[in-house]
Specification:
Shape: extended
Strand order of the largest sheet: 1-2
Strand content: 5-15%
Order of helices and strands: EEHHHH
Largest sheet: 2 strands, antiparallel
Structural class: alpha+beta
Radius of gyration: 18 Å
Number of helices: 4
Length: 112
């Protein structure tokens, strides 16, 4: 892969009244993309999220919903977030990761 500058695109939300613009940053070919994927993998291993389901589309949600344990305490949300982290606070992400690491991993060298 030859690294390149991330591409910023604007998508106009034509279904909204004032037609706001959503920024989409495609950094798949950016130099930091592979590092981010490796970090994501390590965090996923260290910080498993219980009771989560990942699906690719609404049809798959319908099929997976049958397998889920649903009761009166069940909460369900859907997010479309792949490659759309442009508006997330880096400080907030680091604080959340640190908190989860301290709760789940008792290795100071890993937490550091």
């Amino acid at each position: 892969m030859k690294p390149s500058t991330p591409q910023l695109k604007a998508h106009i939300k034509t279904h909204k009244e004032y037609k706001p613009i959503r920024q989409v940053l495609n950094n798949v070919n950016a130099p930091t993309h592979n590092i981010a994927e490796q970090l994501n993998l390590q965090l996923y291993i260290l910080l498993p999220l219980c009771n989560t389901y990942t699906v690719k589309n609404s049809t798959e949600i319908e099929h997976e919903k049958v397998k889920m344990p649903i009761n009166e305490q069940t909460k369900m949300i859907t997010l479309d977030i792949k490659y759309m982290y442009i508006n997330l606070s880096i400080k907030g992400i680091l604080r959340a990761a640190k908190t989860w690491l301290q709760k789940t991993v008792n290795k100071p060298e890993t937490n550091k």
